[in-house]
Design goal:
12 helices; mainly alpha; Na+/H+ antiporter like fold; single chain; globular
């Protein structure tokens, strides 16, 4: 059962490894990778999301239950992390990184993994999952920084953070075009499709290039806390809610996949901008990305047995 999942995810992991190799041996300039990631985040990946959502045909997929499971499981784990804060031996800034590591996800890994596991249907469901979790996770993280970060955004600041998120904007545009029946204009559709096709390999190369393995031992405890939330607490919560709501098949698989993805590389930027622990965030991103290569196949195999994915 694990073998086919590993084979499906292998291209994703190989592209990440290639990105690490290219960063160390060929394209060594930080500015190259920083600007390439900006290109992916602000143009290529939004293009993929708009195209996929605007042209998706979900058929009989339980769209409402899928989005509800993702949203509720994310909120429940976020509330639990905040409730457990008083017993965590970390500073407020470090807790903000643990929190982001627990509730955010990496779309650069999620969308190609969804496509590898379930084909075009998986890509459409993955884009739908992004539309559910991107606003949920971003609202939760901004609110968390308002409580624990050095920067204290007001309500207007929270709205600005959301309005500037290109993935959230792309999700809203794609859903509007689909649900309204307008679709994509003939001249725009192939452009967005081309941008989307470029986003997946470029995004995975950037994930690999951002990996870092040197970290002080003092960062070990909060890194392990974030991994426990991301790779145990969140997927188990998602499984429980999925069973309660009757999710099965690819929809259940996408829920479990997205709730076990490593945290987003953009978490580092948010930590730096809003008073979090940016060095710890960089370590958490790298550690989760590497561990996900081993954890994802095991979690998805468990999902096949428990949810009939």
């Amino acid at each position: 059962m694990v073998g086919p999942i590993v084979l499906a995810l292998l291209p994703v992991m190989l592209l990440i490894a290639l990105g690490k190799l290219l960063r160390g041996r060929v394209f060594t300039a930080d500015v190259f990778w920083r600007e390439t990631e900006r290109l992916g985040y602000y143009l290529l990946l939004p293009g993929l999301i708009v195209h996929t959502l605007a042209t998706a045909n979900w058929g009989n997929a339980p769209v409402g239950r899928l989005m509800l499971t993702l949203t509720l499981s994310t909120i429940l784990v976020a509330l639990l992390l905040v409730a457990l804060r008083r017993w965590m031996p970390v500073s407020d800034a470090a807790f903000s990184s643990v929190f982001q590591g627990g509730v955010r996800f990496n779309n650069y890994v999620g969308l190609p993994a969804a496509a590898a596991l379930y084909g075009p249907e998986g890509l459409a469901l993955g884009a739908l999952a992004s539309a559910a979790i991107v606003p949920t996770a971003n609202i939760l993280c901004v609110l968390m920084f308002a409580r624990y970060g050095h920067a204290r955004p007001n309500f207007r600041g929270v709205l600005l953070q959301l309005a500037r998120n290109p993935l959230l904007v792309a999700s809203l545009i794609g859903l509007f075009l689909n649900l309204s029946g307008l679709g994509l204009p003939p001249g725009i559709e192939p452009v967005l499709k081309a941008l989307g096709q470029a986003s997946l390999p470029i995004g995975l190369l950037c994930v690999g290039a951002a990996l870092t393995f040197a970290s002080p031992k003092t960062l070990l405890a909060p890194t392990l806390l974030s991994m426990a939330a991301k790779f145990a607490l969140l997927p188990l919560t998602a499984v429980g809610l999925g069973l309660a709501l009757g999710l099965t098949g690819p929809s259940a698989g996408i829920v479990l996949l997205y709730q076990t993805l490593p945290t987003a590389s953009a978490s580092y930027i948010l930590a730096r901008q809003m008073g979090g622990d940016a060095p710890l965030m960089a370590v958490i991103i790298s550690a989760q990305t590497v561990l996900a290569a081993a954890v994802l196949p095991l979690v998805l195999a468990f999902g096949k047995a428990s949810l009939g994915m």
